[in-house]
Amino acid sequence: MRRRALLALVGVVVAIIVTSVTGLVLQGKDEAGTGPQTQLVIGSRTPPAPDEGPAEGQVEGTPEETARTYLSDWATGDYESMRELVDEPPGDFAAQHRQLDDALSAQVVRLKPGKVTKTGEQTAEMRFTGARKLAGYDGAWDFASTLRLAVRDLSWKVLWTPAVMHPDLAEGGELVRIDKPVSDTRFVTKEGHAFPHESYADPYLAVLGTHIPQPPSGTEVGWTVELRNPAQPPRVLLEKKVEASEGTKTTVEAFTQAAAARALDPVQQPAAIVAVRASTGEVAAVADRLGGTEAFTGKYAPGSTFKTVTAAALLDGGLSADSQVLCPATYTIPNGRTINNYQEKDHGSVTLRQAYALSCNTTFARLAVQLVSADRLKDQAAAFGFGTSLATGVGGTCGSLNKPENPDALAEASFGQGTVEASPLCMASVAAAVQNGTWRPPRLLPADVAQRIEGHEPPPSVPLNDTVATGLRSLMSAVTTEGTAAGSELPEGVSGKTGTAEDWQGGPDHAWFIGYKGDLAFAVFVKHGGTGRNAAVPIAARFLRAL
After folding, report:
1. pTM, to two decimals
2. Which of 157, 238, 257, 481 has the least CB density, counted as fewest CB within 10 Å?
């Protein structure tokens, strides 16, 4: 019995010795307890007590412990604790993380560690996966990256670069979220298309936007997340598209608007083109480089384009396009001032058609003083919309004319000077009335929508006398075939009227050209541009040839 007890005791002692020498291998479990995750090796020496530090010269901890602690701190947003685990962290370490979250409107919601792999005696790395929750994005945005670790001062540290936050992020790079709001109150062309690039109509759309309230649902926001690294083009990493609503249709025609805008591109002076459908009054294009909504609301001396209104009064009073009239170089009003033709040209005896085509100031001044009363001229202007409140959808004016108080004032008004003022919109509608035979109030929106916005009904349409309309068409046709716009690059079939107007505020003359081709009427205005022939007609030619 003694021998057996002694043998048993010896066996126990041997087992203890073998265990202390060879070590014991244990397997840990992963976070879910479902299988082996890492291997922990208990060495040949008894490990120090928990409250004791590592033995001198021994590395503290393991790469796995550092990596897991780093990810755990990141998940809770404890950037300062993370910083302590990083070798030589940048001074703005915490700020970089916060700025990234703020820039993306994002929050890290998941970080899952992978397996630690030794890459050297004192280096290791851990692949990990993560996910960010972005505002306005269904689900989470997954990413994967790598923690690289190394022994520094006898402890495992993270070798940090911006790529830890996102694998494609370089030093000095950034992730940027760009919001793209899409409002139901956007405005589109008559065809339902977006307005052409650099249409010069933006101020009009902005005014329309202030009149139409936002929908109860508000404004939807689409966005993209862009990677912007130094010396590299931006790259879209994530995108949320929001389909734009059909939008509110305007009367603007996409192709006509594009043609008008491109016709203005090379013009150095402030200028505008307004095009109107003569049969409806719908504004087919408004390209405005005068500033704001000046093509609708600005009022300028219309110069000789206003002779169209004076000619209407003369035709209605009994003259015809073939009536013989005088076109001397100068005309002195009885007991009044002297009127000159442009460059004091004397054309002698001509028809009314020729006087209009040659833009004879002296002819129209003399005929107005002799045959047209101040009241009659004012009434004729009113028939073309002067003095009326338009309901375009963005406001606007046709023009104004004070009742001439004497023959001098009547003569000046007859060729668009004195107190006569008009907007480009107004003069486009005058040309439209000649083409169609009826003056129609211009509008930028469907009639019911424009009326609701303006708060008043549009002025009524005004038909022209058939004889007047026919005579005016004959006069405007002659301008482009034998008058001041003849020999230009205008396409065939254009009728019009040039105008050169003195600016009563001083400065160079304003240049005008109004006219129509088919159902499309237009007005071209160049502020301080000089003569209508030299400044406005070429713009009209580019516009019309593009259609």
Report:
1. 0.67
2. 481
